[in-house]
Design goal:
heterodimer, A: about 220 residues, alpha/beta, Rossmann fold, Arc Repressor Mutant, subunit A, 2 domains, 5-stranded parallel beta sheet, 4-stranded antiparallel beta sheet, B: about 425 residues, alpha+beta, Beta-Lactamase, Heat Shock Protein 90, 5-stranded mixed beta sheet, 8 helices, about 55% helix, about 20% strand
């Protein structure tokens, strides 16, 4: 899997690259419009992470260049603007997803995985971890042959976990990915605790091999 | 009272007083002069009459003429010794006219050639004199009224002209709204002070406008600029937490940093949103089903605040979509409900009511809040450990202001937040 990171902030670019490399992706990066443009013209990528405001030109122009070249790259826009207009504009122009800065790396990984899965799966978009199978489109979860019933939020939580297996996930990142804007009360994440507890119980009862482990003071980890 | 009417009233009162004073003084001076004239006439007549009598004592027994009467009365030498001339007003009965006529009387004495003393009483009709005084009186009154009227109207007209540039300036000042461009000021005047005032007002308005714009832009830019470093810190913390040799204690520290950082991120987001709203960057409006939105958000709130065991209740009698920016509507409802949930003590109640006219959110709470302060940015109840950014209600207020919707707070045993949504355009009734 080849990913191109187009971002002008050195520290941010390096960080994203490092995190992606840890996931065994092949990563290239471009710090400005020209470099990015020549890279997409020369090579093929599976996914492009695109900053909108770049020295030398707009990230959206690169997006339209990709479409003009009839390239198959999946594009995730990374923007500091976080405005609805920007988001709609980007998605209208053919971007596959939109992530506002400052994002959680775990969230970024989940989005990339979801995109690549859809790109590469021929109809089958399921995620398989040992005996745990998650069907994101049908919102269905199987453990072995047995289907387990999860409520909406429990499913969202599990989906985030299976998108980030073996990764330590901070509780704020988890809460934000599931509840979005509704939680900005930084301290009260008690609700997360009870939801995860229920999820863990259901997985355990069904005999799932992957296990959600709590890490004191930090968050959780899906251990496979 | 406006400046014109006030000035006019002051001038009117001054003229009223001084003109009246002048009229009174004038009247009495003229009166005095006329009296003197009458007495002088009597005196002259006396001289002539006594001169005639001294030549012709026969006349001592006459006493009449048409306009003037006289009478001679012999008096003793002693009486004559202490005699003093007197003038006084009196009246005399006139038989032919069958009425009393006002007269001026003069009494004086003289000695004839044969040494006899006489008292002369002279009476002169004052009909004409009184007529004259009356005429003067009326002339004065009419003059007074006319003069008062003329001056007042004249002063009013000229003041109105003089103050016109001032009125135009005041009107112009009233038109100004922060955030809108400063309108042109067309206010030519030859009056120096007003010209200076015009220039000063225009200068000040432009400066205020530019400061306002810069200030607004500043918050937005600052928030933007913070996004990238925040993303870096967040990402590095994530990478740090994933490193293999991190200890449990260190991980706990990283977790705390995450939590604190999250708060900064939320704060920054809210600030950015706030300045965007104030900069009017949310213009697109679409039909939004408020009832559905409230129900959805309330469901999520129930989930998030499950541990607090808050009873929520939503009553909807409004049931119609309104024309509003969807993101703003979401921020508005979300923050109103979140505020209620956060500040309700465990086991309390949150009631939401949607009518055609109002969106009302009530939540349990013991102590009334200060309605002046709660919608301010970063207002916290200092007595509680706070979980909020302090911007939630400020956001609500900004959105309400943006749509000119009155937002009220009152305390009726519960905290009550009322948002009047009647001004939002309704579009169709949903079942």
């Amino acid at each position: 899997m080849k990913i191109l990171v187009v971002e002008d902030e050195d520290a941010l670019r390096d960080m994203v690259c490092e995190s992606l490399r840890k996931e065994k992706y092949t990563v290239e990066s471009a710090p400005d419009y020209q470099t990015a443009l020549s890279k997409i013209q020369e090579y093929d990528y599976d996914c492009v992470l695109l900053d909108v405001m770049l020295p030398g030109g707009s990230g959206l122009a690169i997006l339209s260049a990709l479409k003009r070249l009839r390239k198959q790259e999946r594009v995730i826009i990374l923007s500091a603007k976080d405005s609805v207009d920007d988001k709609i504009k980007g998605l209208d122009m053919g971007a596959d997803d939109y992530l506002a800065k400052p994002f959680h790396l775990a969230e970024l990984h989940a989005r990339i995985k979801s995109l690549l899965r859809r790109k590469n799966a021929q109809g089958d978009t399921s995620i398989v971890l040992e005996n745990l199978v998650v069907y994101p489109d049908k919102r269905q979860v199987m453990v072995g042959e047995q289907e387990i019933q999860l409520n909406r939020k429990e499913f969202d939580l599990l989906y985030y976990f299976v998108s980030n297996p073996n990764r330590l996930i901070n509780k704020t990142s988890l809460a934000e990915s599931v509840w979005g804007d509704h939680i900005d009360q930084a301290d009260s994440l008690d609700f997360l605790y009870s939801q995860v507890k229920n999820l863990r119980k259901k997985l355990k009862q069904a005999g799932a091999v992957p296990e959600i482990k709590a890490v004191y003071g930090f968050g959780y980890k899906l251990v496979v | 009272m406006n400046l014109l009417r006030y000035t006019n009233r002051v001038i009117f009162l001054i003229i009223l007083f001084f003109l009246a004073l002048w009229g009174t003084v004038f009247y009495f001076l003229v009166l005095h002069e006329v009296m003197d004239e009458t007495d002088d006439a009597l005196n002259n007549t006396r001289e002539i009459l006594i001169g005639k009598v001294l030549h012709n004592p026969e006349l001592l027994h006459t006493n009449d003429s048409i306009m003037q009467r006289h009478r001679f009365r012999p008096i003793t030498a002693e009486e004559a010794e202490n005699y003093r001339e007197t003038y006084f007003d009196s009246s005399v009965y006139i038989q032919t006219e069958n009425e009393f006529e006002p007269v001026r009387v003069m009494k004086s004495c003289f000695r004839t050639a044969d040494g006899a003393y006489y008292e002369l009483t002279l009476m002169n009709s004052t009909l004409e004199r009184d007529d004259l005084i009356r005429a003067i009186w009326w002339a004065l009154v009419v003059l007074y009224v006319v003069l008062l009227l003329c001056t007042t109207l004249g002063v009013y007209a000229s003041l109105k002209r003089v103050f016109r540039p001032l009125h135009r300036l005041v009107f112009w000042l009233q038109q100004m709204t922060p955030g809108k461009p400063v309108p042109d000021l067309e206010n030519d005047t030859s009056i120096n002070e007003f010209r200076i005032l015009n220039d000063a007002a225009l200068d000040m308005a432009r400066r205020a406008e530019s400061v306002y714009r810069e200030q607004k832009q500043f918050t937005e830019n600052a928030s933007h600029e913070l996004q990238t470093p925040l993303a870096i810190i967040r990402g590095k913390l994530e990478l740090l937490s994933e490193s293999e040799d991190i200890t449990e204690k260190q991980l706990e520290y990283v977790g705390d940093m995450f939590t604190a950082l999250n708060r900064v991120v939320q704060l920054n987001k809210s600030l950015l949103l706030l300045s965007r709203i104030n900069n009017g960057q949310f213009i697109d409006a679409s039909p939004v089903n408020l009832a559905q939105m409230i129900a959805d958000i309330l469901e999520i709130m129930d989930e998030i605040y499950e541990a607090k065991n808050i009873k929520t209740h939503f009553e909807n009698t409004g049931a119609c979509s309104v024309l509003i920016n969807e993101s703003l509507a979401h921020v508005l409802v979300n923050n109103l409900l979140k505020n209620a949930m956060v500040h309700t003590p465990a086991g309390g109640k949150v009631e939401v009511e949607l009518t055609r006219e109002w969106l009302v959110v009530r939540n349990s709470g013991e102590v009334p809040l200060d309605p002046e302060l709660i919608f301010r940015r970063f207002y916290h109840d200092r007595s509680k450990t706070t979980e909020s950014t302090g911007l939630g209600l400020a956001l609500v207020k900004s959105i309400a202001d943006f749509y000119h919707l009155p937002l009220l707070y009152k305390y009726e045993g519960m905290h009550v937040f009322m948002l009047k949504i009647i001004n939002l355009e309704k579009c169709g009734v949903n079942s």
